[in-house]
Write a structure and sequence with these properties.
The protein is of the alpha+beta class. It has two domains: about 1-75, Alpha-Beta Plaits (2-Layer Sandwich), CATH 3.30.70; about 85-280, no CATH class. It contains five helices and 19 strands. A hairpin with a 7-residue loop joins strand 6 (about 110-115) and strand 7. It is globular. Bound molecules: zinc ion.
Length: about 280
């Protein structure tokens, strides 16, 4: 497990850049127009031997807090760590277009039954609507911007069926203007939801919806997500978390997949998703 940081800050004086570059840190500087100073962006992993030194250096010249403002971070897991985990979060890293009709999303559309107009939690009741057939390239999985619904190719569905994966359905998705069923992908619909079970909620910031009382947590970015064992249903390879994540009108449940599904995707080198380890406790 490693945590990747993309740290951005603005400074008039860019002397720090040469110090960072001498340390071998991936550093980019963009001069902003109109005497706007310099936007300095560095990419660094916590495993980098210069991590502590770098944080100290930035903190000395610019108020900087790790995991604070200006720090975009994400936890990355090796394939070995993924293969050794009992459950994983499946994260799409290939987004293709918006759910339709985009202009009315999410409050007025045909795919979701919106349960609360304030935080936009929902049940999906009808097929997702896309603007057109997606361009997948070499990807086997995709999602849409703003949503966490997962789509995959027939080849991926075939692989899942061959291993007798349980707990998913193949749903048609349609082209919004014509109602024509998409050919390149179907939605991998996950009907089952865990019981409440995400632990460490104190460390997860969230917002309590003033209208319905549902807590929506901010995206989980640091380390492993811990979930109580009794929250999982037996005999399934796919689940959604009971807990909602997102902010504003963005709302999603995290997709959980079993070790064997993650193993299949890694074995087949199917692209478009990556995994984050879940610790079952
Ligand atoms: Zn609400």
């Amino acid at each position: 497990m490693d945590i990747k940081h993309r740290i951005s800050f603005n400074m008039d004086d860019k002397r720090i850049v040469s110090v960072l570059l001498e340390m071998g840190i991936d550093t980019k500087v963009v001069e902003l127009p109109g005497n706007g100073g310099n936007l300095i962006t560095i990419l660094i992993y916590e495993s980098d031997p210069n991590w502590d030194k770098t944080v100290k250096l930035i903190s000395n010249v610019k108020h900087f807090v790790v995991y604070g403002e200006g720090d975009q971070y994400e936890t990355l897991f090796s394939n070995n760590e993924v293969r050794n985990a009992e459950w994983l979060r499946l994260i799409s890293n290939f987004e293709q277009g918006y759910p339709q009709p985009k202009a009315l999303w999410p409050l007025k559309q045909q795919s979701y039954e919106i349960l609360c107009p304030k935080c936009a939690i929902y049940n999906q009741t009808k097929p997702m609507r896309l603007a057109k057939e997606p361009h997948l390239g070499k990807k086997s999985f995709m999602s849409l911007i703003w949503t966490n619904e997962l789509f995959c190719t027939s080849q991926a569905f075939q692989g899942l069926a061959e291993m007798n994966a349980r707990g998913y359905e193949a749903w048609d998705a349609v082209i919004n203007k014509t109602d024509q069923v998409l050919e390149k992908v179907h939605q991998l619909f996950i009907p089952n939801i865990t019981s409440p079970g995400v632990l460490g909620k104190k460390d997860l910031q969230g917002i309590n919806c003033p209208a319905c009382g549902t807590i929506k947590y901010y995206p989980h970015m640091s380390g492993v997500m811990r979930i109580k064992r009794e929250a999982f249903m037996p005999n399934t390879d796919f689940l959604l978390t009971h807990e909602w994540f997102g902010h504003g009108l963005l709302a999603w449940r995290e997709i959980l997949v079993s070790n064997r599904v993650a193993g299949l995707i890694l074995d087949q080198v199917w692209q478009g998703v990556r995994f984050k380890v879940v610790e079952v406790v």
